[in-house]
Amino acid sequence: MGDYVNVKELFGCDVFNDSVMQERLPKKVYKELKKTIEEGKELSMEIADVVAHEMKEWAIEKGATHYSHWFQPLTGVTAEKHDAFITAPMENGKVLQSFSGKELIKGEPDASSFPSGGLRATFEARGYTTWDCTSPAFVRHDAAGGTLCIPTAFCSYTGEALDQKTPLLRSMEAINTQALRLLRLFGNTTSRRVTPSVGAEQEYFLVDKEKYMQRKDLVYTGRTLFGAMPPKGQEMDDHYFGTIRQRVSAYMKEVNEECWKLGVTAKTQHNEVAPAQHELAPIYAPVNIAADHNQIMMRILKKVASRHGMRCLLHEKPFAGLNGSGKHNNWSLTTDDGINLLEPGKTPHENIQFLLVLTCILKAVDKHADLLRESAADVGNDQRLGGHEAPPAVISVFLGEQLEDVLEQLISTGTATRSKTGEKLATGVKTLPDFMKDATDRNRTSPFAFTGNKFEFRMVGSKDSISACNVVLNTITAEAFKEACDILEKAEDFDLAVHDLIKKYATEHQRIVFNGNGYAPEWEKEARRRGLPILPSMVDAIPALTTDKAVELFGEFGVFTKTELESRAEIQYEIYAKAINIEAKTMIDMATKQIIPAVIKYTTVLAESINQVKAVGPIDVSVQMDLLKKASKLLKEVNSAMNKLSKLVDQVEAHPEGRERAVFCREKLVPAMEKLRQPVDELEMLVDKEMWPMPSYGDLVFEP
Ligand SMILES: NC(=O)CC[C@H](N)C(=O)O
């Protein structure tokens, strides 16, 4: 059945990876490049020229006609400009194809139209893209033909970061330096690098393209702005891990193949909780590669969907009342020689290095909970957080039974003497093999959950880049490691000092640990009592970026300057206001041009029917009358809610761009939009389906 796929041959076939480099580059050049990749040594132009030449030859063999510096500006999506390899025609009228070291290393997109949050005036438009040689180049095939994509970082003329990648690379340096210090203290002399390792699970929805096109809200905003719940939603839990329908299976097959070609380790796929919702998860990779791969994966998910007559929705909450989509960011710290700093071993209470790492992370997350929350702030995520298996907008850490017990021992007696172990799984069926279950269960309501040998940050939205949250995780952990090392390196009795420090951190930061139900209303009260930041909306979260605490943290590790942080906050406010404004305008458009006319038609038909029936004789028309009255009443409500919303939209521009405008949108527009949605959704339940001007939730999610 189907065509045979040789995965081993397919995997990475369009990537300029280590084996291609080794095969094609002269030995000396290969060695120099490796030094740059592994140790950050500067690359000479001579070497760059040779690499560029070989890269071009290889890419042309793969069918590439163009190259592109591929980068991630602060628009939330990737950007690229394509240049053909051709040179000016020679006298004989023919062209050559060339690609120089300079072209590989440096690009200069005309960058004035990318968000800079005031960092760059339009008359100072210069921006540079620089090759990130730690993330391999690849040839992408699509309707444009073959393009050699070179992962790059994007900075302004004065060196300020204008993208997601630059701070990520900076934060990787910070955590590497501090984690190595920590390892040395415990006698490790062999590890040379510590890298954050990340696996980002990607959730998404698939809907039929024809139906999608009939919904302006999906087209313009990526989510439905109206829509009554169908008689069946996700309450039966029959979609999660259910049999994958053939149309979707065929889609997934192609997605996997395209991912594999580009070296993206598409590994686990399944149906998610909501009907029409699915997930694809890769294997761990160094965080900058994981971030690039996630962008590639999102693009493939979208592109392949079009080929199959579908649309892939990456929005965090395409359908109110159904599960939203997240991007669970599984984060750990690993050394180049294979040690995972977050591996507790069988007896965590004896693993002092692990306990120090763990308590440092508790301290980091407690101190910077606001920043971690902000790193997942996204307009769509405001709809998702706090329900349907997405964490609430309050940061806490789930440790699970085993570690919580160790922590409690540490706090109460100063030393931990035992670790709870996983027990045998008792199924009560003799023919099923016995195995030991994990010492800890999972918790889906926790934003930051320890899951065996990593932390799963569940707050990130499905559409968002994973860079921001990893910048925060890396930097806050680097800070905690640094503070611990500063003390321990000076200690006369290391064992005693480390013991005291672990106890101190565990005690002082215990408040961030919460193993219970994050949805329970009591938790919010309790979190408030503990003094944890509660930041329900993106607009509430943005100020975390520019507090003195944040400026100091990011400044110390060279991750962001104060100006960069201010510019990022500015961009976030702008993004928020623009997105809400588009949503509000889309609602008005749909209400005016589609919904109100449909309801008028429906009420007219009802009225005509009443008259016609009455004309026949004294027949009871009270049902029709009832419907007519109800529909007319709701129609009036729609009209008045819409007028109110229109007036507010008109006022948006009077508010200065930035925080003030975002706050206005959050406080005025968002509630007015909800007011408009209510009567429309009620009408959808009332009006003849034939007359309703767009596909319903049921149409969209049950028959994609
Ligand atoms: N089963 C799951 O892990 C569901 C997660 C959920 N979709 C979210 O928004 O994060």
Automatic annotation (TrEMBL):
PROSITE patterns: GLNA_ATP, GS_BETA_GRASP, GS_CATALYTIC. Residues 628-655 form a coiled coil. Residues 164-595 form the GS catalytic domain. InterPro entries: Gln-synt_C, Gln_synt_N, Gln_synth/guanido_kin_cat_dom, Gln_synth_cat_dom, Gln_synth_gly_rich_site, GS_Type-3, GSIII_N. SUPFAM superfamilies: Glutamine synthetase/guanido kinase. Residues 65-159 form the GS beta-grasp domain. Keywords: Coiled coil. Transmembrane segments: none annotated. Belongs to the glutamine synthetase family. This is Glutamine synthetase III.
